Amino acid sequence: MKVKLEGHLSLNRVLKDGTSVPAQAYINTLEVDPGDVLIFYWKN
Q1: 12 neighbors 40 (Cβ within 8 angstroms)
Q2: 8 φ, ψ to 5°?
């Protein structure tokens, strides 16, 4: 599945190893394999 991401600069992505990185470090269109997840969060 293709996912297009749009959001505020405070949006972060949680990687599979548990670390988090700014979401802007990735292209704004990602592919998700069956059974996989994308996890994002933001700080106020």
Answers
A1: yes
A2: -75, 160
Strands (DSSP E) found in the chain: 2-4, 11-14, 20-22, 29-31, 39-42
- For the chain, the straight-line distance linking the first and the last C-alpha, in angstroms and rounded, comes to 29
pLDDT of the residue at 37: 93
Instruction: Name the pTM for this structure.
Output: 0.74
Give the DSSP letter of residue 24: G
Per-residue confidence (pLDDT) for residue 1, from 0 to 100: 92
For residues 15 and 25, is the Cβ–Cβ distance under 8 A?
no
